[in-house]
Amino acid sequence: MQTFKELCNGKMHVAVQAMIDGLKTHSKREDFIIKMSTYGELSEKNICFGCAATCAVQQLSGVTFTADKIRSKFPAVKGYSIDLLPSSQAVLLDMKSSDINHFEESINALRQTGIGPLMTYFGFDDIVKEISIYSFLRENPLEKLATSNWEKNLEGYQKLADFLKENDL
């Protein structure tokens, strides 16, 4: 079983880029709605809802959460809504729910402008590089990604992903 850290080759920039690309990709789906207040949910009407973390998870894992896929793994919920908690996602992704939870929490913190949990998830312990990240963010502050504004506020996250990549982080 791979972890998200392994799927990112140990690089934070891959996780940030996956969040950005995942939001852009999954927002175009007719059966998926960006909703930052949920980690993943399937409605009775077979519409999937997900936040930035759900989009990053789908982007990195290569697994698209669809009603058919979810209901095939959880037939008892046919016709009902279901929350895609890390334990449910673990079944869909064949990954440990603890890793999914830790990764999702770090992406959720990031979309709310906090990078500390993502650094912790990646086991970041280089004080010089940490200072450079915080200096970058002081000069290029992030705006919170909410359901209503995420498209408008993605530019700052792209700058962060580019900075992290340039610095091999």
Q: Give the CA-based shape.
A: globular
Distance between the termini: 23 Å
Number of domains: 1
- Kindly report the average pLDDT value: 91
Query: How many helical stretches?
Result: 9
Assembly form of the protein: single chain
Give helix % range: 55-70%
Can you summarize the main beta sheet?
4 strands, mixed
Strand order of the largest sheet: 1-3-2-4
List the keywords.
169 residues; mainly alpha; four-stranded mixed β-sheet; 9 helices
Descriptive notes:
The protein is mostly helical and 169 residues long. It has one domain. It is 56% helix and 6% strand. The protein has a four-stranded mixed beta sheet with strand order 1-3-2-4. A hairpin with a 5-residue loop joins strand 2 and strand 3 (48-50). Helix 2 (12-26) crosses helix 3. The chain is globular, with a radius of gyration of 16 Å. The two termini are 23 Å apart. The relative contact order is 0.17.
